Amino acid sequence: MLGMRGVNWIFFQDNFPESGPCSELDDTITFELETNTEELTLDPDRVCLNVLRYVFFATNWDQQISSSTDSPERLLRAAYSFNQWGEPKKLQSP
Description:
The chain is mainly alpha-helical. 38% of the residues lie in helices and 9% in strands. The protein has a two-stranded antiparallel sheet with strand order 1-2. A hairpin with a 2-residue loop joins strand 1 and strand 2.
């Protein structure tokens, strides 16, 4: 991710846009996530949740990692709903 210092997250809490925190120090984020074809095929939710955790921590939104109301799991479920994929009963979590 490039050019992100001072750029706030926009998220929708109860269908209303709100501004979240921003990275105050870093303008670029680079991270590696080891995975394989099997994991991407069988547990794509797990891979996505790991990416969300890295991004939230790196962008000064670490409270999202442990928040019960806006957890990565809840955001992933919202993505399923937004994309009209049909929300799974259980996510594959790390």
